Amino acid sequence: MSDDWRNNPATEKQKGKLRFFGCTWDEGITKGQASDAIDECVRKFPETQQAWLSRPATPEQLEELKSYGDEPEAGLTYGEAKELLHDPDTYHSAQPPKLVATAIPPVLHTKRGFFGWISDKLEQRKIRIAEAKAQRKAYIASIISDLKNGQASTLDRPNFLLQRGEKICWIEPGTLEEVKVVGRRYEGGSSGMSFRVARGVRFNVGRQRGYSVSETAAVTTSSGELVITNKRLAFLGDKKSLAIKLEKLLEIQPALNGIKFSEGGRAGPKLIKYYNNKNADIICEVLNYVLGY
User: Fold this and answer.
1) What pLDDT, in 10s, does the model give residues 254-275?
2) Following DSSP, what letter does each residue of 154-195 receive, concatenated?
3) pLDDT in tens, 34-45
């Protein structure tokens, strides 16, 4: 198949998606260039791609769905509508898709028609999501139950010395980040006014240097593992390690991608980011257990 399509001007649909990713482009961008750029954006920024698919269905999608004789469900997303309309997103495929003859779903011959098949498909999807959530909830409950009953699998971390009666409840790989000063600048300074007193001599008034302002940012200081025990919260890293007794924690803020905690004083808050976010819900429940919530 010829690649002449790549030399055609980029479509408004392509430009719209590039704009959603925060991209700019040169005048005269082609379909092929836009296609390659979109592929790279999707690969590097999966969260933005998910946000693109999760946005509301477009008016064009809704009108096309209405043409099948029924009203689209409220809250239909762009991605769901795209799937229902079998839209392959050819604007970021390497080549136009091949046409393949497929059998018409039997449900098309019923009185409910094509849109009845769409509704069934969405309902099945909702059921699968509900079942997956229930299974996940039961799995987490079993982990906490085993911890309470002393039946949890023994977790071990080499070179981590446990105290009397202490047991490891969870281990999660991640990185340690700390808030540090990364730069300084002056604000509020003024050159004041200058008056000529004599030849080659000027008198300056109102000059101020200003005051120093520190610029801070979260900086990765070590890679390692978050270790949660029934007595301590610890991080064992390649460059830096720390351990805080649970009763000395001043604050703790779990999130989807990590956990922030502080014991007060001048040390400042610590942030541990997980390598993988899939266990964030388990970590929250383990923390609730060890903290007695």
Assistant:
1) 888 899 888 877 677 889 999 8
2) PP--TT-PPPTT--EEEEEEEEEEEEEEEEEEEES-B--EEE
3) 888 888 888 888
Query: Are 75 and 125 spatial neighbours (Cβ–Cβ below 8 Å)?
Result: no
pTM of the model: 0.51
Distance CA 94, CA 279 (A): 35
CATH 2.30.29.30 segments of the chain: 168-187+212-290
Q: Which fold has domain 168-187+212-290?
A: PH-domain like (2.30.29)
Instruction: Please give the Cα distance from 67 to 69 (Å, whole number).
Output: 5
Residue type, 150: G
Q: How far apart are CA 276 and CA 283, in angstroms?
A: 12
The number of angstroms, rounded, from the C-alpha of 240 to the middle of its chain's C-alpha atoms is: 26
Q: What is the DSSP code string of 231-265?
A: SEEEEEESS--EEEEGGG-SEEEE-SSEEEEE--T
Number of Cβ within a 10 Å radius of residue 164: 5
**Backbone dihedral angles phi then psi of residue 260, each to the nearest 5 degrees:** -115, 135
Q: How far is CA 22 from CA 19, 26, 39, 79, in A?
A: 5, 14, 14, 20
| Band (109; pLDDT cuts 50, 70, 90) | very low
% of the chain exceeding 90 in pLDDT? 19
The answer to whether 194 and 171 have CB atoms below 8 angstroms apart is no
